[in-house]
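Aim 2 progress update. The chain analyzed this quarter is reproduced below.
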Amino acid sequence: MRILIVEDMEDVREVIRRGLEESGYDDVVEASSGTEALSRMDGVQLILTDLYMPGMGGHSFVKAIRDDPRYRNIPIIAVTGESQLSMVAELLRSGVNDYVVKPFSLPDLIAKVHQYKPTLDQWFAAGGPPERDGDPDGDE
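Predicted structure tokens:
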């Protein structure tokens, strides 16, 4: 399973990457901004993204992913400092599938990734995720 980490802080990317690799996820791609991430989407099956980054931040990146028919169904887990319920609700409405609050526990983050693995394995064995019309929330 190819996982894309989008995080502007190199040390945080490194911690996440090492944790994923130690948990058996060895196909990990990294980007330090949303713009860089968009150029690294080839084969990505799960995205872990920070929200507050210079240039194209996480909110704009999530919107770009959800607006692109090639990528709109890829699960996105936000890794964020936001913990207020209203902000979390907004994240989920914006197209994020799940979230982990910084400072995060690496085992908790890996557990979130594990939750998506069976579905992703099934989707990509069948040639990709099922198509879904425009609305990332699925309530069109």
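The domain at 2-125 is CATH 3.40.50.2300 (Rossmann fold). Helices lie at 10-22, 34-38, 58-67, 85-93, 106-125. These observations will guide the mutagenesis experiments scheduled for the next reporting period.
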